[in-house]
Design the sequence.
């Protein structure tokens, strides 16, 4: 393995996070992610996967640790005054899609897409609308531009949510169990869109329970349990023949195979 | 006994004047009360403890006492305390605005609370500034959700406005009672008065449930 | 402001008497409202139109007209129309009781219809007959769900009961008005009366709030 020439896209160092003294979700996480990587995080519920993404997005404070993004300091907390410092400029280059869509129900699809570009980047409404329609067309949603979220299927909502996040040209996309709330027949259309982004070399961090999807999209898989990284490697290793006992147990249980 | 509803026709004009007073009073207090209630609703969710405390005491007190005594207090006591003359209309407007402000502030507060935390997550993930989170995402949803309850608050106000007859304001109820006393025909007159109130309030309550269903359908993600 | 307060001249004995009358009115009206409201709720959900429509008209009429109109109407018109002469206390109780019945019927109806369809399906799947499904599944769930609204309506009628002062029932409001006129001390009197009403209402609304919060916790 040769040393990367560019700095890592993300460098997390000893992330600690707890809810009260009893519940420790992250117990010193160290993860580095190179540009162009597609990192899939798997693991049991309560293992800290979703918290990891929420911390990365700046939605949760941390108790201790730091995150560098693109070589710049992004989030840090020294653990003394319990204050999480966060650079909101850096945060704007990260996009996130949630399990429950979180579209704005009072705005139609295009309005959902252009709200942030117009308000954050002061983009002209006509320009933003043009880009929005372009994205929607690419995702097969051209006819839904004027529809309200309540008039869309779950799969359509989630594709709109992805388009909304892409409107800000993120340098990293976070996907938090984006297909978990969907009916099985709608999962594929959302995964197709994410695979399409992968083909364009969009760096992404994905939390999912769908092992088939994990295998297809990942360039690297991390198995996270008990607030620490248990195993980290290429998908063939972690999903196919894991080295760690705990990973193997988990994979066995999820797949229900190997007698 | 023989009922003779035609007697109402002789007092048509007086009743219409009374109805006009009722509607005028209701309309003024709907506008003032909703505005005030909105501000109080914000104050009740504010970070300042003093604002929260003052607004809570106001709301709880006005919700916890009969409107009649609020009305009496404002008609008889407020002028004495302030040392000024208040016209009947002014007193009525103050009293009913304060009542309306208290009930609508609860409506606004509940609808503000009903906008879920995941909407805020989405705002942060999109990098929206705090000001836009409030004006473009939270408030529009809260106000939409508040509309049906606000409308039924208006119906309540319309009904409560009949209380001003007890302090001598010439609204529909007052006029009706006067006619009924003068003609000794309470059954005809009071029944018609009740029907007038009903004819206005009933369609509004139907509209409430209609709008409620529409809004719920739209906001259900 | 150059008004000097004088709470000394307020005699509490009549106010106490008035409060007792107010509480009696409230309690009696609530008994009518809770029992009668339930029966009325069954009528407005009846599949038979001849039963349902008059019951709905009754409910809507009480919900869509001012309580003061209802009370004045009751006091003037019932004796003339039906040739019955009841004491003013009884009239007050009936007028307030009917009003509360209408509002409570709505509360019962809403909570009965809010029992999730799956609950009833589960009852069918377990082989319960229609009566058993109503007795063991629908009603217990619905009744529990309607308690906060019943309490809110009940305390509402406590406040509305002040209206009977207008037709000379000697309740708290009436005693307050008399005292204010006799002592020329309206500010002190009306303030004390308002505080008494508040002191009774407020704890009840707090209890309702507690019930509702607990319910939300249990349901989530």
Sequence:
């Amino acid at each position: 393995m040769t040393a990367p020439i560019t700095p890592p896209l993300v460098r997390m160092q000893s992330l600690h996070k707890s809810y009260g003294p009893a519940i420790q979700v992250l117990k010193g996480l160290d993860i580095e992610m190179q540009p162009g990587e597609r990192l899939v995080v798997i693991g049991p519920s309560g293992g800290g996967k979703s918290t990891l993404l929420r911390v990365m997005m700046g939605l949760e404070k941390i108790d201790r640790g730091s995150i560098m993004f693109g070589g710049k300091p992004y989030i840090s907390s020294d653990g003394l005054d319990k204050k999480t410092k966060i650079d909101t400029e850096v945060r704007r280059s990260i996009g996130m899609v949630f399990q429950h869509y979180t579209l704005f129900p009072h705005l139609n699809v295009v309005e959902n897409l252009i709200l942030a570009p117009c308000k954050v980047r002061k983009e002209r409404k006509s320009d933003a609308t043009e880009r929005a329609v372009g994205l929607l067309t690419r995702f097969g949603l051209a006819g839904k531009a004027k529809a309200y979220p309540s008039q869309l299927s779950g799969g359509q909502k989630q594709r709109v949510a992805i388009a909304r996040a892409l409107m800000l040209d993120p340098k990293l996309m976070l996907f938090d169990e984006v297909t978990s709330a969907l009916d099985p027949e709608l999962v594929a259309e959302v995964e197709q869109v994410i695979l399409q982004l992968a083909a364009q070399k969009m760096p992404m961090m994905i939390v999912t329970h769908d092992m088939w999807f994990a295998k297809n999209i990942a360039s690297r898989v991390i198995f996270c349990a008990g607030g620490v990284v248990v195993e980290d490697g290429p998908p063939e290793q972690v999903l196919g023949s894991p080295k760690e006992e705990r990973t193997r147990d988990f994979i066995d249980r999820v797949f229900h195979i190997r007698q | 006994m023989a009922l003779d509803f035609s007697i109402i026709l002789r007092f048509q004009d007086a009743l219409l004047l009374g109805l006009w007073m009722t509607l005028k009073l209701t309309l003024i207090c709907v506008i003032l009360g909703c505005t005030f209630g909105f501000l109080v609703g914000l104050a009740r969710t504010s970070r300042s403890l003093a604002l929260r405390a003052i607004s809570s005491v106001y709301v709880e007190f006005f919700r916890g006492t009969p409107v009649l005594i609020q009305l009496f207090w404002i008609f008889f006591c407020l002028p004495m305390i302030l040392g000024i003359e208040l016209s009947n209309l002014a007193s009525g407007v103050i009293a009913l605005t304060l009542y309306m402000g208290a009930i609508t502030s609860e409506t606004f507060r509940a609808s503000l609370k009903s906008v879920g935390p995941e909407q805020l997550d989405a705002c942060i993930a999109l990098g929206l500034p705090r000001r836009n989170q409030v004006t473009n995402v939270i408030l529009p949803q809260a106000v939409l959700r508040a509309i049906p309850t606000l409308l039924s608050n208006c119906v309540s106000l319309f009904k409560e406005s009949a209380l001003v007859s007890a302090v001598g304001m010439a609204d529909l109820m007052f006029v009706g009672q006067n006619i009924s006393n003068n003609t000794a025909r309470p059954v005809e007159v009071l029944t018609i008065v009740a029907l007038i109130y009903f004819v206005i309030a009933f369609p509004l309550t139907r509209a409430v449930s209609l709008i409620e269903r529409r809004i719920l359908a739209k906001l259900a993600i | 402001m150059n008004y000097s307060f004088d709470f000394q001249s307020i005699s509490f004995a009549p106010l106490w008497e008035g409060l007792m009358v107010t509480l009696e009115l409230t309690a009696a009206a609530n008994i009518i409202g809770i029992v009668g409201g339930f029966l009325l709720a069954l009528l407005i959900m009846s599949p038979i139109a001849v039963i349902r429509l008059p019951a709905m008209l009754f409910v809507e009429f009480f919900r869509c007209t001012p309580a003061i109109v209802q009370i004045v109407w009751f006091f003037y018109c019932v004796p003339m129309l039906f040739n019955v002469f009841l004491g003013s206390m009884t009239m007050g109780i009936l007028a307030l009781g009917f009003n509360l019945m209408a509002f409570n019927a709505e509360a019962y109806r809403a909570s009965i219809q809010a029992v999730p369809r799956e609950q009833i399906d589960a009852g069918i799947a377990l082989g319960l007959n229609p009566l058993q499904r109503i007795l063991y599944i629908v009603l217990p769930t619905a009744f529990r769900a309607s308690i906060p609204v019943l309490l809110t309506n009940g305390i509402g009628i406590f406040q509305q009961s002040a209206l009977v002062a207008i037709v000379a029932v000697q309740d708290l409001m009436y005693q307050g008005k008399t005292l204010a006129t006799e002592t020329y001390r309206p500010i002190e009197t009306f303030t004390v009366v308002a505080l008494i009403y508040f002191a009774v209402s407020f704890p009840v609304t707090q209890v309702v709030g507690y019930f509702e919060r607990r319910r939300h916790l249990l349901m989530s």
